[in-house]
Amino acid sequence: MKIFSYFLLLGLFYIPVSFADTSAKGVDNKMENKQSGNQGALRKCTHLLPEGHKYTISIIGTSDKTTKEVNKQFKGEFKLSSGSKKPLDKKRNEEIKPFIQCVTETVL
C-alpha cells in the first residue's frame, strides 16, 4: 500500500510538471515571434537621415502602470544630436524632420 501511494503521488506530480514544461516552451516561442515582428523599427527610420553625418540617438522613457490616465502612463524624451558638441543648424534641423516624424510614429 505504501509503494502504491508513493507511485500515485509521484505520478500526480510528474504529469502536471511535464505538461507545464511543454506549454511554457510554447509561450516563450510565441513571445519571441511577436517581438521579432517589431524589431528594427528605429533602424528602418535611419535611412531618412542625411548622408555624410554621424548622429547619436537617445530615447529615455518611464512607463507608469500605476495610473489609469493614458497621458501619464509614458513620459520620456527623444534626442538626436550630431557628432559635434554644437547644436544642429537650421538647415540640418529641416533635413532630419522626416526621421523624427518616422520615429515618433513607429517607435514612440
Automatic annotation (TrEMBL):
UniProt-recorded name of the protein: Uncharacterized protein
Signal peptide per UniProt: 1-20
Presence of keyword Signal: yes
Keyword Signal in record: yes
Organism: Xenorhabdus bovienii str. puntauvense
Keywords attached to this entry: Signal
